[in-house]
Specification:
The protein is an all-alpha fold. It is about 45% helix and about 0% strand. It has a domain of about 80 residues. The protein has five helices and no strands. This is Terminase small subunit. InterPro entries: GP3_package (IPR032066).
Length: about 130
């Protein structure tokens, strides 16, 4: 693993820094004044690249804290879906692994098909304008 000069020595100090990052992004009313981002969090924690951040997220003692922080950022972007023009939030969520496709979690499930039968009712449509009676 690449060396990094992060700002924490244990889980407790990591959790304090994560909370501090989210608190710093809020204004006096408690609303987010500055958007929280995964890159912003990584920089605040002292990481030098996304790859190193991802590697630390796989270390057992830091995994839960970093995954929870990532989840908090996803929650922020998810809340942005309710604003006009949520395309930036959609892009961010997709880059964090969200998928708009519905996945079938049933094991061995075969794709289902839908049969549509068209039933003609009423008068037959005119094939030419001269057939239309007014």
């Amino acid at each position: 693993m690449a060396k990094t000069k992060h700002r924490f020595n244990n889980c407790e100090s990591l959790n304090r820094l994560i909370d501090e990052y989210f608190e710093r992004s809020k204004n006096d009313t408690g609303k987010n004044a500055e958007p929280v981002t995964l890159t912003g969090l990584a920089i605040f924690l002292g990481f030098t690249s996304k790859e190193v951040f991802d590697q630390y997220e796989q270390i057992v003692k830091y995994k839960e804290s970093l995954m929870r922080a990532r989840f908090r950022i996803m929650a922020y972007y998810e809340s942005r879906l309710h604003f006009p023009s949520p395309s930036g939030a959609i892009f961010a969520l997709k880059s964090m692994g969200w998928d708009e496709k519905v996945k079938d979690t049933r094991s061995g499930a075969k794709p289902q098909s839908l049969t549509v039968k068209v039933i003609e009712t009423g008068p037959k449509p005119a094939s030419a304008e001269k057939e239309v009676a007014l």
